[in-house]
Amino acid sequence: MGRLRRIRQGGGARSLLREASDRRQVRDEEGDSASVSRDFHIPSSGAPAERAFLVGVQLPGGSRESEEENLDELALLAETAGAEVVGRAVQSRTRIDGSTFIGAGKLEAIAREARDRNVNLIVFDDDLSPAQARNIEKRLEVNVIDRTELILDIFARRARTRQARIQVEIAQLRYALPRLRRLWEHLSRQAGGIGTRGPGETQLEVDRRRVRERIAKLKKELTTIDRRVVERAKQRRTLFNAAIVGYTNAGKSTLLNRLAGSRVLQSSRLFSTLDSTTRRIENPGARPFLLTDTIGFIRKLPPHLVESFRATLRDVREADLLLHLVDISHPRHEEQAEVVGRVLEEVLGEEAAERTDTILVLNKTDLLENEAARRGAAASHPGAVLVSAATGEGVPRLLELIGRFAERDTVRVVVEVDAEDGRAVAAVERSGEVRERLIEGAVMRFEIDVKRRDVAALESLGTVVVKLVDPR
Asked: Over the chain, what is the mean pLDDT?
């Protein structure tokens, strides 16, 4: 979060664009170097420690307990970003104050507490408008950020691959675009009178254009990367695909490691995974399948962040099966599951989300108090699978269910194709797992296991004859 402070105190949108244009050599998944800009976040050991004060609002219909729990999550986010949380406040209001969000009186009380506790960062649990953030900073005279800025800062720290870094920067620039005027306030404070406002406004428009151009350039680069990702996905689409989705810190990476015997990063911190990781799983007594660990979701996930990460979420859209992982030990697991459901509807579309096969997986059963709690969880979620990714409890049952879905999704077909039609022969070879390959005169005959949805694609090749057969 050090850069957030420097951007604001450095004064001017020029500093934002300089930061956004600052080139860093990063390495993508294939080991290639690529210049990708980083803004908002510089993990600098010389930066002063952030002493954060959290602010939430309780509106009619909400409870004090619920808002305190929201601030608990905000505290985890702040700590993940490297801040020390030294205090919090919840303001009960009938409506949000358009100028200061929480009202002038409460703002003065927070200002006094912030001075007493040597606070240098105020974090609001809700998004602030540019005007609200500007007004609050003027009165508190400390750095003020909202939940979205905090999440963006964490994402900037966590992004490892070229694709993730670009997606984070697009989200950052989209967030910054309507807030550039706030960065130009120093112009109006430096001098008054005729002539001072015009040049500032002109430069503001220049900076807005430059930000839009930067976003367009990044989108083009992201499209190029996305094509490569799609091509790699085509090469492995012959296998059944399952994707793990869930709230951040639900144990998705732990489950992937348990099933694949791999060592994907596991962490109790939020958003430890930003880049999708796929592993081939050998399922004893059943078909092998691909399993993908995806980015975690969270309450109030910024919409433009979801939009920026659509390329990463492609694995979710193209999955044959979703494993919706829920931390059953968390007191608000029902709400977390609902958050994931809403984001999935946004990513997949409501109709597709309902149509996609999903297994509800209740994780962290080892953290439940007793056997009665386990029985209660099972009774409350009929059809769910109870597991502990940490201990392996329930994992064989989960693999059995995945195997059933994979078997149902796969059919064996006989494909006859003109042996001289190289394009058709190559397409058939790529379409599934070839069990038998014979040449009979001018015809090449394949016996192949394919996904049901790919049968029509084979038939559309024109010169191909497809017959369903009994795999047994």
From this structure: 79
Please name the residue that has the structure tokens 């990714």: 389
Residue with token string 């001098």: 191
Give 324-348 pLDDT, tens digit per residue: 999 999 989 999 999 999 888 887 7
Taking the C-alpha atoms of residue 302 and residue 175, their distance in angstroms, rounded to an integer, is 9
CATH fit for domain 410-469, picks 3.90.1150.10, 3.30.70.240, 3.30.420.40, 2.60.40.10: 3.30.70.240
Whole-prediction pTM: 0.75
220 marked among binding-site residues: no
248 in a labelled binding site: yes
> Any binding-site annotation on 251?
yes
Asked if residue 431 belongs to a known ligand binding site, the reply is no
Q: Determine if residue 252 is labeled as part of a ligand binding site.
A: yes
Using the CB atoms, write b or e for 288-316: b if 16+ within 10 Å: ebbbbbbbbbbbbbbebbbebbebbbbbb
Do the beta carbons of residue 329 and residue 367 sit within 8 Å? Answer: yes
294 is an annotated ligand-binding site residue: yes
Contact 424, 442 (CB under 8 A): no
Neighbour order of strands in the sheet with 51-58: 84-92, 51-58, 121-124, 143-146
Does the annotation place 247 within a ligand binding site?
A: yes
Question: Is position 53 annotated in a ligand binding site?
Answer: no
Q: Does 253 appear as a known binding residue?
A: yes
- Is 296 annotated as contributing to ligand binding? yes
